[in-house]
Design goal:
The chain is mainly α and 80 residues long. The chain is built from three helices and three strands.
């Protein structure tokens, strides 16, 4: 998995948003941390009403928007 960044120090996490951006070279430790954060899920697969659904309902968002918000939070954890 290759992480890419925008010019400056902000990281991008999807190829679609970063096609024209600079590649970031990560150390093996950074790559391992990035992979752990990217695979982390706030949704319990056995929950009858997962966190992302609650987040969407309580904020009047679509489920897709709530999931993007969660991914954005996870992404900001890596760039800190």
């Amino acid at each position: 998995m290759r992480a890419r960044r925008q010019q400056g120090s902000n990281f991008c996490y999807t190829e679609d948003r970063c096609k024209d951006k600079l590649d970031v070279v990560m150390t093996p430790e950074q790559q391992a941390l990035y992979d752990r954060i990217a695979s982390f899920s706030l949704d319990d697969p056995d929950a009858p009403f997962p966190f992302s659904h609650k987040l969407a309902k309580e904020n009047g968002w679509t489920l897709a928007y709530a999931q993007r918000a969660i991914a954005n939070i996870n992404g900001s954890l890596f760039s800190r």
